[in-house]
Amino acid sequence: MQSNAEIDQILRTKSEAREIPGVVAMAATGNDVIYQGAAGKRDLGKDDAMTTDSVFWIASMTKAITTAAGMQLVEQGKLSLDEPIGKLLPDLASPQVLEGFDASGEPKLRPAKKPITLRQLMTHTAGFAYDMWNGDLGKYLEKTATPGIISCLNAALKTPVMTDPGTRWEYGTNIDFVGKAVEAASGKKLDVYLRENMFAPLGMNDTGFKITDAMRKRLVGMHARGPDGALAPMPFELEQAPEFHMGGGGLYGTAADYIKFTQMILNKGRGNGNQVLKPETVAQMGQNNIGDLTMGRMPTALPAYTNDVDLYPDIVKKWGLSFLINTAKTPEGRSAGSLAWAGLANTYFWIDPARNVAGLILMQLLPFADAKALETFAGFERGIYAGLDAGQKAA
Hints:
The protein has helices spanning 4-16, 62-75, 118-123, 135-144, 174-186, 190-202, 213-216, 255-266, 279-285, 371-394, and strands spanning 23-28, 33-39, 56-57, 96-101, 107-111, 222-225, 231-234, 252-253, 270-271, 274-275, 317-319, 324-326, 338-343, 347-352, 357-362, 365-366. The protein is of the alpha+beta class. It is globular, with a radius of gyration of 20 Å.
């Protein structure tokens, strides 16, 4: 593929100019890895060069894996997509909606009009939010001294919903409850369940909530972009002895491992010689599961952690279980009906079943939706499609 050298050049140029810290990118068809590259440093404060086996906090790229685990249990009849989840998770049995705050700043709550379902949790339509994109939730956490989700404390999950379940798409802590549902239905801790039913079968031996000694040797440092645009290393590590494993964002892993997960989706549930999901389940996960609702813009409430998120503003966006679905072709060449999502520290992936290709790009910097990181991602993705197109012409 003639464009791989061009992709190498993009990654190298962006890293050398310090527009991004180090980066790893990888793309594959259902059968073969067609591109892998690394550029820059693992940590701008140290000398180690980035390598393709470097370990990243993949944050919300965890969500698709946790949801896939949940769908295994749906297949077995141990979980139901549309029954009230409160039967299994008592904390969700009587959700309260935050209606605002009274004159003294106390939260005003009312009972939700409908019960919460597993499908709503998997599609971010249950009403749960993240304080990064919802200032009212931030105010609620502060007023009630509720810890933030990144603490991995069970108390962090005790929040109201922002809207009645099923009435709006809003990005939030939903998949952490999917993780809790996996635990309740399987009788296993989420880390153990994922290892036995997803990571081991797919050969993802470099992915987990806990950073092993072997992983730590290749761990990538976190970086923050300052107001002047410059990047600086910053201390960051998720709690390594958490009260609960964050199904919505707790995993660390490598590009090579995550590409195996995307290939499993491309191959209709099969990977590494193992069928981990039924083909019809994978088809269901890749379809619009939010009906007439759409994914909208996500304006930031915490600019240190995230910029405003407005991906493909001209394209109607739907949600699967648990993927972003673009309903029209993107400027980079991604087919309509492709699946994608991302992680807070500027990690991104996409899966394009129509073209039998998937790719991911991993960086470690905040805030999310960083313009330079998105430029790098777009250049990489365009290069992959240019290579596919050239290959088709040659054939």
